[in-house]
Amino acid sequence: MTEDHPRYTGMHKYLDREAGYALWLPAGWREIPMTEEHHGVIFTPHADRIDTSFAAEKKTLPFKVSQKDVPILRKGFQAGLQALPGVEIESQDEMITPTLKMFEARYTFLENDVRRKRWVRSVYWGEGQLNLIAQGATEEEFAYWEGMFYNTMMTVDI
């Protein structure tokens, strides 16, 4: 990585009509379908690895999420963060409206003795749950790609 930040050469709209969402991603990022009972997609700027990536996975829940579910969703989100090895939470936020419930966090954690950085956002609406994960293989690599992660995270269409 010789430049301070990556350069856009174009944008690509990924549309999952069945799941009901769309993402705007940098052109040229490799698309990899999730496997093993996961229903989503991973995008990475690298040809040979996915430890730096943007992932999206939509789940259909067996119930409609309502305001009364917010405390248990919040508790589950927190428990998921705390379960990560060596987690250090940088920031957390949430947005609760009558139609959308969103929880997000930025944090670092250890994976195979490597400190990685993630930005996770879980969005609930109706019976839908969309999990978005921007991850850098290292804190430095996250910082390098952060502008592109930000653009993708902020332009999600549900």
Features:
single chain; 158 residues; alpha+beta; Protein Transport Mog1p, Chain A; two-stranded antiparallel ribbon; 2 helices
Question: What topology does this entry show?
Answer:
Blueprint: E1 11-16, E2 21-26, E3 30-33, E4 40-44, E5 53-60, H1 70-82, E6 88-96, E7 101-111, E8 114-125, E9 128-136, H2 139-154
Antiparallel strand pairs: 1-2, 3-4, 4-5, 5-9, 6-7, 7-8, 8-9
Count helical runs.
2
**What oligomerization state is this entry in?**
single chain
| Number of separate strands | 9
What CATH calls the topology is Protein Transport Mog1p, Chain A
Arithmetic mean of pLDDT:
95
Helix content: 10-25%
Shape verdict: globular
Strand fraction equals: 35-45%
Give a short account of the largest sheet: 7 strands, antiparallel
Strand order of the largest sheet: 3-4-5-9-8-7-6
Number of domains: 1
Determine and state the CATH class: Alpha Beta
**Helix vs. strand class:** alpha+beta
Distance between the termini: 33 Å
The fourth-level CATH homologous superfamily is Mog1/PsbP, alpha/beta/alpha sandwich
- What order do the helices and strands follow? EEEEEHEEEEH
Structural commentary:
The structure is a single chain. The strands form two sheets. Strands 3-4-5-9-8-7-6 form a seven-stranded antiparallel sheet, with helices on both faces. It is of the alpha+beta class. The mean pLDDT is 95. A hairpin with a 4-residue loop joins strand 6 and strand 7. It has two helices and nine strands; from the N terminus they run βββββαββββα. It has one domain: Mog1/PsbP, alpha/beta/alpha sandwich (Protein Transport Mog1p, Chain A, 3-Layer(aba) Sandwich), CATH 3.40.1000.10.
